[in-house]
């Protein structure tokens, strides 16, 4: 275990953020040492991946933990065992180069493999839960190694058992699918796919990955040029009869029907409809590429980002009677 003081917390919003301590751990045995260290010092802590889904404070009075395991192993029984610090896109590339099915729709999602189960990353009609067999973790409350099978992870839309736990994910087992069906139902994806099919092109995971990557590069800001943490709010699931429609029609909203009464509502459209009434801030704004993304100029603080987020939440609430939930982890 390597322990550092005044540890810089990398984050894709480029908030200037430092933790009192940082611990870098690169083997399973050191996790017991980490457990004793945290308890001896009574330290607050959080687990840091690549920092693409975090809103950190300028000073974190505690320990930022980075676990480093960068192996990709093909085990018997069609399992791909992947270390938590492997970059997600590196895993996608590995899978599509082997023509394994299932990873292609999740192309170009930033971050690490270890963070993928936390909020059950998803895009273009697919979620990582469809690929996961087991998640191996170290329980930082009890100081023990353990693992969950897929059902025990309690995966939901942008949620899992890991979100509110102190479980450090060390590696993830994925199912290898050498044959499979491509998942092409998502609207913007099927539109591009149909164009390819009409031009006589055969589709495989690599082709679909290329299409997804092209769409993403068009519609999402690149965090290295425009610092951001991806979607800042989840798409809320609401009862249609509860929506306040005094200033807009239902047709103005984007709805994905869940059942007769409930629908998932596109948060980006809600924000688009209220954004002209928001105050402007020096260092943070709604991205011009995507209304669900808050971008900084590299000088924003956590408070400033959360101030804009809170103003958006309150305008959406008063206009539509809809609560928006913040998606990235707020470190406090
Ligand atoms: C431009 C952009 C686009 C994005 N698009 C999508 C998208 O399409 N779909 C989507 O779902 N997400 C998207 N995201 C969000 C982000 O990519 C994912 O949440 C990603 O999984 C975060 O990975 P990370 O390694 O950066 O995690 P971090 O930001 O470092 O951490 C995120 C959370 O995971 C926890 N964590 C990290 N590693 C571990 C570990 N090993 N064990 C336990 N807990 C851990 C952290 O404590 C924190 O709570 C996007 C982000 C950006 C910037």
UniProtKB/TrEMBL annotation:
Q: What's the Enzyme Commission number for this chain? A: 1.3.1.98
Per UniProt, subcellular location reads as: Cytoplasm
Q: Does the keyword Cytoplasm apply?
A: yes
Q: Which InterPro entries match?
A: FAD-bd_PCMH, FAD-bd_PCMH-like_sf, FAD-bd_PCMH_sub1, FAD-bd_PCMH_sub2, MurB, MurB_C, MurB_C_sf, Oxid_FAD_bind_N
Alphabetized GO MF terms: FAD binding; UDP-N-acetylmuramate dehydrogenase activity
Query: Active-site positions, per UniProt?
Result: 158, 231 (proton donor), 327
Q: Which HAMAP family match?
A: MurB
In its UniProt entry, what is this protein called?
Answer: UDP-N-acetylenolpyruvoylglucosamine reductase
Q: Which gene encodes it?
A: murB
């Amino acid at each position: 275990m390597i322990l550092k003081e005044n540890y810089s917390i990398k984050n894709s919003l480029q908030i200037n953020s430092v933790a009192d301590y940082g611990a870098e751990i690169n083997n399973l045995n050191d996790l017991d040492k980490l457990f004793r260290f945290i308890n001896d010092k009574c330290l607050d802590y959080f687990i840091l991946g690549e920092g693409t889904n975090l809103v950190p404070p300028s000073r974190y009075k505690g320990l930022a933990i980075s676990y480093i395991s960068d192996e990709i192993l093909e085990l018997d029984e069609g399992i791909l065992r992947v270390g938590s610090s492997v970059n997600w896109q590196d895993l996608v590339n590995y899978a599509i180069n082997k023509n394994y099915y299932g990873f292609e729709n999740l192309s170009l999602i930033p971050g690490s493999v270890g963070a993928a189960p936390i909020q059950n990353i998803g895009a273009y009609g697919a979620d990582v839960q469809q690929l996961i067999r087991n998640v191996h973790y170290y329980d930082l409350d009890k100081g023990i190694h353990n693992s969950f099978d897929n059902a025990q992870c309690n995966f939901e839309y942008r949620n899992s058992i890991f979100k509110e736990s102190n479980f450090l994910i060390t590696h993830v087992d994925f199912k290898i699918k050498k044959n499979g069906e491509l998942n092409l139902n998502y609207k913007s994806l099927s539109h591009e796919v149909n164009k390819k099919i009409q031009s006589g092109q055969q589709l495989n995971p690599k082709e679909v990955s290329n299409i997804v990557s092209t769409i993403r590069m068009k519609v999402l800001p690149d965090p290295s040029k425009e610092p951001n943490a991806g979607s800042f709010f989840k798409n809320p699931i609401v009862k249609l009869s509860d929506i306040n429609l005094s200033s807009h029609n239902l047709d103005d909203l984007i709805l994905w029907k869940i059942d007769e009464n409930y629908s998932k509502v596109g948060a980006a459209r809600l924000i688009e409809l209220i954004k002209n009434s928001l105050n402007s801030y020096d260092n943070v704004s709604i991205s011009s590429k995507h209304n669900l993304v808050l971008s900084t100029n590299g000088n924003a603080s956590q408070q400033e980002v959360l101030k804009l987020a809170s103003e958006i939440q309150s305008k959406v609430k008063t206009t539509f009677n809809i609560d928006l939930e913040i998606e990235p982890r707020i470190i406090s």
